[in-house]
């Protein structure tokens, strides 16, 4: 990959890791390579959906999967573009184990000029908690999800 | 409706309004009647997905829609049961307007012994931001999403 | 509506009613107005998915819902464009009653320059058999689904 | 696998290959092993959705993916049960090439007592035309999709 592409990939990785929502959840980016995105979310009491069980709220998992899929799409871009989720389907295969961290991995299945497809999963160890499939719109003239200069 | 059902509806409403995730987002329940759930989410900087635009993260909207649909299902129960999202589809029709609150409304379309279907939408005024469709599993012997006694 | 729009709407209605797949299923268009499409599918043994019950195959219902949603989108166009389904979610709420006809109705929820959202349902009398939500891509320079001249 | 399981697998394979809908489309089962189902659909003019392009109707692809996913679920059963699609999402990644056959492959991702998850794809050679994700309900006391005795 060229230096320009490296710069862009690095800028994107940094911008995506700094969205307020991701910081509020406490998640972090653990991988960002061509066609793939990986994130980790440490277990935390403020993410719980059901106090009786300590299980993390489904919306948290959805939000992370949405972002992981968007990252996978972003990693395929050769020039800056804004990525918006058009639609997303989540299948919850089993409740997340309380007290355990979650790993998220997504891959970009296809990217065109305007539309991209991605798919991801949330895991705890080998156990798949949820899978996602989504379509994304690419806008080539919109403000980017870049972090402000330091 | 009988007093028992009233008690259950009230307990459910209270329990659902107290999930840590909902409190962390800053959302509140604005309606809970038979077959329907309504919530409101005030705009807040910690919910932003893209700092360049101030638009709220899609995962926040998904999380709220998930919960609103679950509430609509819960409002149809005649006896306590645990409600888990089996799968959910979200369509993002337009970006949420930065700085504006979001309203969520969901309805239960069908409820059986084990499975329920619900559908919801996120709005800002008359403008629909996103719609959701989901299926939910009902477990009649699992811990409930009830708040602890005060 | 202008005469030109009327002509286009009529051409579209006629074209859509003549897709080989719709003819093979035995379906017919029963309504086509701005923002809505309606179709009817008479019960027929060649549509059965499970010979033991006589229930129509889910794929038939999906195919009809796909087409009804596409019709609803097509009815909103002001100039010819090709409509392709980007993705579709179907929820099967109850098995179709064997021996009974099915009615399909769809509405276009939002149409932009390139993307449209639609939602539909399959019914037998008042009983909802399935619901669908889909996104569609509009191409303004592609061959149209028009019937050949007679 | 025991002889009983072999008998059941074989009975299921035969039953599924004989649904009237599959015969009407002209599809055939090409593989049926534990956790996986494979089918092939030869190109045929009566499956066309758009006469101007000769492209197969999306509903045909959806129907085949639905059945392939159901087969993958069925292949995991250790005792007869009826499999009904609860919901299904299809993403159409590119139009099917006119004149070319379609191959379908599905895998069962998880199977519980009442609910199963499956995922599949439609291909032409190496080119992925569509992907699907679905949830299925298992009923252990319902009529089976078995073919009548010859």
The major β-sheet of chain A equals: 6 strands, antiparallel
Which structural class best describes the helix and strand composition of chain A?
alpha+beta
Q: Total strand count of chain A, please?
A: 8
Strand content of chain A: 35-45%
Biggest sheet, spatial arrangement of strands of chain A: 1-2-6-7-8-5
- Report the end-to-end length of chain A measured between terminal Cα atoms: 26 Å
Helix fraction bin of chain A? 10-25%
Q: Quick one: which chains have the greatest interface?
A: A-B, 42 and 43 residues
Shape of chain A: globular
Radius of gyration from the alpha-carbon trace of chain A, in angstroms: 15 Å
Secondary-structure element sequence of chain A?
HHEEEEHEEEE
> Segments of chain A where pLDDT lies below 50 for 5+ residues?
145-150
Q: What's the total helix number of chain A?
A: 3
- The oligomeric state is homotetramer
Mean pLDDT of chain A: 85
């Amino acid at each position: 990959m060229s230096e320009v592409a490296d710069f862009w990939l690095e800028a994107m990785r940094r911008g995506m890791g700094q969205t307020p929502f991701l910081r509020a959840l406490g998640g972090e980016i653990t991988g960002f390579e061509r066609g793939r995105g990986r994130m980790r979310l440490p277990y935390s009491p403020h993410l719980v959906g059901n106090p009786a069980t300590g299980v993390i709220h489904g919306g948290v998992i959805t939000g992370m999967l949405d972002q992981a899929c968007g990252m996978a799409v972003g990693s395929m871009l050769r020039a800056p573009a804004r990525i918006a989720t058009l639609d997303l389907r989540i299948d919850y295969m089993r409740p997340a184990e309380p007290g355990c961290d979650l790993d998220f991995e997504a891959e970009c299945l296809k990217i065109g000029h305007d539309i991209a497809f991605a798919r991801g999963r949330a895991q705890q160890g080998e156990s798949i908690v949820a899978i996602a499939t989504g379509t994304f719109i690419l806008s080539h003239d919109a403000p980017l999800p870049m972090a402000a200069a330091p």
